[in-house]
Design brief:
Layout (H helix, E strand, L loop, with lengths): L1 E3 L5 E3 L7 H4 L3 H12 L2 E7 L4 E7 L2 E2 L33 H7 L2 E2 L14 E4 L2 E4 L8 H7 L20 H10 L10 H29 L7 E5 L15 E4 H5 L5 H9 L1 H13 L2
Parallel strand pairs: 3-9, 9-10
Antiparallel strand pairs: 1-2, 3-4, 4-5, 4-6, 7-8
Helix pairs in contact: 2-9, 4-5, 4-6, 8-9
Length: 280
């Protein structure tokens, strides 16, 4: 058995104790390293149930933790870089705390994020209302109602442990502004869900812009979408960027169903792919 330890390379089980800091929470680094081997310049946007990773890369290098990369000419076609990723930044600069500071780690996901984290006020029937800062509903309620969340990824209990049908989902959304599900029709609750969706997209879009500016990514950079929330990625990137799918374009899986699995399980696929390449 081998363990991916980032800059420390691969280690055996007997060495895990010495490298636990490099191994812990290195899933994002594995996925970004795999993308950096295949794509000339861009940013990995991996949106999961709880968090979003925004990891820039260029010419085979994972740029996370670096303040600014050296200027280079991006390949507008997004051609394959064909070089091993260099892990130049220090391990400390790649900690969760450091990545929260740079915007490379955002605690926003499409399942578990409490809706009250998306903003203090929300529009309802032409008025702005204060949001109830309680764990009354989550982003799963939003994307379940918009039919964007795959039921296979809707794995966590609802905020009130009630069922996940439409009526109970609407009731949880209503509770965020002191109402009950019966106080409006299904179309109004769907529009309300879309307003919450817009709030989350606004925040994630601003974080993508922060990372792109920090690493001077060019106007023709690529975004690699991964995770169960990859359906949001096309709405988060600057104009002129092209969106690639991790499963299809990085893992190079042709079968749609398998590519979709690879997109959601990107870190596992990345670790396997990186290890396989090193054994050649």
């Amino acid at each position: 058995m081998h363990f991916f330890a980032g800059a420390a390379g691969w280690c055996r089980a007997t060495d895990v104790g010495a490298h636990w800091e490099q191994i812990a929470s290195a899933n994002w680094l594995a996925t970004a390293s795999h993308a950096a081997r295949c794509i000339a310049e861009g940013v990995l946007i991996d949106i999961g149930s709880t968090t979003t990773d925004l990891i820039a890369f260029r010419a085979g290098h994972v740029l996370a933790g670096e303040r600014r990369a050296a200027p280079s000419s991006p390949d507008p076609r997004g051609g394959r870089a064909g070089r091993s990723p260099a892990l130049g930044a220090s391990d400390n600069s790649r900690s969760d705390a450091a990545r929260l500071a740079t915007g490379e780690l955002v605690y926003h996901g499409v399942v578990r994020t409490p809706l009250c984290a998306l903003g203090p006020r929300i529009a309802w029937q032409g008025r702005e209302l204060n949001v109830m800062n309680e764990f009354f509903a989550t982003t799963a309620d939003v994307y379940r109602l918009t039919h964007e969340l795959d039921p296979e990824h809707d794995q966590h209990p609802s905020a009130d442990n009630a069922p996940k049908d439409v009526a109970h989902t609407c009731a949880r959304l209503a509770r965020m502004i002191g109402l009950d599900g019966r106080d409006a029709g299904s179309d109004e609750w769907l529009a309300f869900a879309r307003d919450w969706r817009a709030r989350q997209c606004d925040e994630l879009r601003s974080q993508v812009a922060r990372v792109a500016a920090a690493h001077a990514l060019g106007p023709h950079a690529l975004a690699v979408g991964a995770g169960c929330g990859a359906f949001l990625v096309p709405e988060l990137v600057p104009a002129g960027w092209r969106v690639l799918d991790y499963g299809r374009d990085v893992a190079d899986v042709a079968a749609p169903a398998t590519a979709a699995w690879a997109r959601v399980g990107a870190p596992a696929v990345a670790v396997a792919s990186l290890y396989e390449r090193e054994q050649r």
